[in-house]
């Protein structure tokens, strides 16, 4: 399968590039809407475009234009107007009539779409060709896209990118802390208007490729796919655009190849796989995979982190128990079992890991002993525990008999900064609230100087 | 005295920890409130976890660890004996419902599913409205009432439930002084009937006047006991001036390691 | 449409009602007509949808769950496909098959209930899973789930029915292809809605108004919610042949929002929304016949009904606004008069 011919073949070229431009614009704007926590307004506006599409097609039919492309432009303009009307209607319902956001969105979506259905049904008998053309915009139909439309879509997509770049810093301020931005003089209403305009642009670019019903998915899925990978705003946009473009390309390829395969196997069926839903499926797949596999915030990463943390707690409990027994004490596997009360496998794993880290050595007779490094580590844990107890009693007024439990939990979560802060706050202490000695900093450091 | 000691404590909380997103809201709370007609104030700075404590006690929020006993038993067994007045901000004021309808909700907990409220329930609701001085407003839609009037409706609803323990979240916030006095009188009547009232209270200046037991909270429990013993300047200073930065950071780290993003 | 046999053919707006009442009168007197006219079928189906959606829609609006209805309206597609597949695989019931192309789609009541169970479960469970596990914002989680499931449903349905136009029918309905079995189906769903709302009225009211109070009281909030989601799914699926899954959202939200402008007592709100909704449906049927007869314009009755719901909303809001302003100025006039006539 030669993928490059999707860009060279005159039949496949326009649809492929058209879809990719749609993916590009939709994912950029979708990232914006996701960060603005308004993920579903795109769905409402894209459905609201439908009556505009039908009306535009109807108006265009009155003009004796030769090429279908000019009428396409009229349809796009009319769709944009309908989106604008939908946006205004939502604001009016929310602000002036004090209707709740979800009801306002749902109502506007359904009513505008209903108007579109009404108009479409009206031309069903009279302008059958136009009717079919309008319906194309429901789920998109790229197969009949012509080369002439590509520059227009490219221009609009580029325009979208340009606005995002120009407004990058105001957008960042607005998304992060709206109140702060307003107080500091940012023209928030103007930026909001630009964001709405971007949304409408994206819908107009994409409605031929993926249709108005599925547009919402392309606004959401690539953004969700991008988000878990990075915390930097510009990287979010770039990744979202990449996911959007790639899923559009793949969806297009699969629909063409799949339809070809189906036509070969079942020639009597005579239909092709719809492109729009396939693009969306790829985008959603990327989203789900990202949510699962992204490092740090992905689900898999969290599961692994949780397991490793539990393991560490078990190991540190063992170290503490050895510390209590004394510097050169020995324990056997059975004694470790009593201290840890874990399954055989976990115990074995703990001992193995501790040995590998150089904290334990195996002596004669299958007994384990703390190394110097291990002693220092154990001292550190106990030191942290007792420092926490001091903090809880002196600074948070906890009862002396109650702080042990908290400290048991907190001793395992230390970072170096936290430890330094704690020491700075408490000073160089000798004894904890139970009058037990606190291991000194030197004791807890390895290698010893 | 002896009979009081043999009674189960009204509320018993041990090692309660609750988190919200990445920060601890309650940390290792151990609390015991004896039964027998106490008026308990829960005080502390904003974000101290007072509302969360109430919600955990009522089973609306699940804690990360620890457990709660109401009247010596788990919450589910004693639901009939507790009443809850939520914060005024939690309610949808545009809901098409009248004052009388709101008060009648107080008896829904006791009613089987398919039974409609009877005349007796309606009469009782009207009596409760009368008690709080809101009978003339029985058929008003609730958004047409003032803050104080709304609070009285909710109090009437709670009174309908005829509970042993009444939980209230900032009942005096944003209402006029006259209503405050009247509500307080109703509280005193309840106290005479040996009911326990647990109130999240925002106004430190009125604690000593109204309440005989105080719980001072700021993520951790600072103090809990009779007002005369506990409500001292030093305790309040400790609550409002405590250094939580390190605890918050540690808890955040712990949540991260335990699998949250 | 069998033109010659349709008693409504060639009738304008008022004549439609005349024919309707004549036939109803004949029915009461015991004369069964040969068959139901398409207009009557449309009328009955839309009325059933009006009744069901008014009852359910009010609580959707009050519970702020309209986004769930939006989400369900997309995922029911997959539920329908799933139900059809399982039905055919496990029961080999050829009666309830969607297939063989245009105009032969038909869903039996048990299949519908099964489909709604599937959809409701998929939607609620998957949304909760994704929102919680992936820590997504609620709107984003819902949006991802329902758009994906819709895409899956669409592809499956297209493959299943081998009909490329099925997607259009799903969102727009095909009100002209209804027949009498649809009447039975939609009224069964309306009956389910009535029974649910009647039995659970008190619980629905309390949990919609004050959820934390209800939970503290020990009311079975989760069960009520689950039943409500299930019934909403059934209502949406029941309407998909007539009006399509998107337009049913107008039936769910429009009359409820309109009724709230008029009264503040819940039973009256529900009653008013029933009236508004039914009115829109009835006028839509008559008006579409009128437009066809007098102006030779054929329009979708479903689209017309939705537009009428919107127009009714606009009219009522304008009327209440005028009324409130009039009352305000009247009060001002009275108070300024008394002010002037007060002795010093």
Structural class by helix and strand composition of chain A: mainly alpha
| Mean pLDDT across all amino acids of chain C | 85
Number of strands of chain C: 0
> Per the principal axes of the C-alpha atoms, what is the gross shape of chain C?
globular
SS elements, strand count of chain A: 3
Helix/strand/pairing class of chain C, anyone?
mainly alpha
Task: Return the string of H and E elements of chain C.
Answer: HHHHHHHHHHHH
Overall CATH class of the largest domain in chain A: Mainly Alpha
- Helical proportion of chain A? over 70%
**Which value, in Å, is the CA radius of gyration of chain C?**
23 Å
Strand content of chain A: under 5%
The biggest sheet of chain C, with number of strands, parallel, antiparallel or mixed sense and barrel status, is: none
Number of helices of chain C: 12
CATH architecture of chain C: Orthogonal Bundle
Indicate the percent of residues in helices of chain C: over 70%
Report the sheet-strand fraction of chain C. Answer: under 5%
Largest interface, C-beta closer than 8 angstroms, per-chain residues: A-C, 58 and 59 residues
Shape of chain A: elongated
User: What do we call the CATH homologous superfamily of the largest domain in chain A?
Assistant: ABC transporter involved in vitamin B12 uptake, BtuC
Overview in brief:
Chain B is of the alpha/beta class and 261 residues long. Chain B has ten helices and nine strands.
General description of the model:
The complex is a heterotrimer of chains A (449), B (261) and C (344). Chain A has 449 residues and is mainly α. Chain A has 19 helices and three strands. Helices cover 73% and strands 2% of the residues of chain A. Chain B is α/β, with parallel strands linked by helices and 261 residues long. In chain B, the strands form two sheets. Chain B has a six-stranded mixed sheet, with helices on both faces. A three-stranded antiparallel sheet of chain B has the order 2-1-4, sandwiched between helices. The N terminus of chain B is likely disordered. Chain C is mostly helical and 344 residues long. Helices cover 78% and strands 0% of the residues of chain C. Chains A and C meet through helix 5, helix 6, helix 11 and helix 13 of A and helix 3, helix 5, helix 6, helix 10 and helix 12 of C.
